[in-house]
Amino acid sequence: MDQDLTGLLHAWRAGDEASRDRLLAQVYDALRGMAAARLGRGRNSHTLQPTAVVNEALLRLLGNDTDWEDRAHFFALAALKMRAVLVDHARARAAEKRGGDVAMLTLSHADREAGGDVEIDVLALHQALEHLAERDERAARGLEMAYFGGMERKDIACVLGVSVPTVERDLRFARAWLNQQLA
User: Fold this and answer.
1) What residue intervals traverse the membrane (predicted)?
2) For residue 19, which of 52, 68, 54 has the smallest C-alpha distance?
């Protein structure tokens, strides 16, 4: 499937619209699952639905002239676009409510690691990731791909051009740093 997605990405970039449609059909459910995991389960007041996150992220992604290298790079960029959608939505809600009812995000990857159901303020997470990027850009990018994209360590390693153990070290550092910042 990885090679098939990579082939579809390259065919689409070469102008084959049918490849784009087949690609979107194959990745849509995976992207929607990522968005659903990040939006959490416990907040009925959350106005942004997984389908809306994916649709907006895909619109932003389709308007981009990035030359995909492979499936991992595509999902990394999709994670970045989903983060942008969530942050933009949280900012709009905060402005609309004058700071009240800030959107919360469940980091399911972090939930699996920590064994709990953790909800994080999207804007606080965004700011913390920006501060982390100033200190360690690679760790911030890896954390973004893991949390927002639900990507596996081997895929993150491929995108970042490092080994899996390096990704694991970066993620341990980034999680500890993020926990300290958000505490």
Assistant:
1) none
2) 68
The tens digit of pLDDT for each residue in 44-77 reads: 445 678 888 888 888 888 766 666 678 888 888 8
Reading the block at residue 69, the tokens are: 């290298």
Q: How many domains does the chain have?
A: 1
26 token code pair? 């194959």
Answer yes or no: are the C-beta atoms of 118 and 106 closer than 8 Å.
Answer: yes
Q: Which helix (H) or strand (E) holds 105?
A: strand 104-106
CA–CA dist 98, 90 (Å, integer): 12
What residues make up the domain containing 114? 2-182
Within the chain, where are the H helices? 2-13, 17-39, 50-62, 71-96, 108-114, 122-135, 137-149, 153-160, 164-182
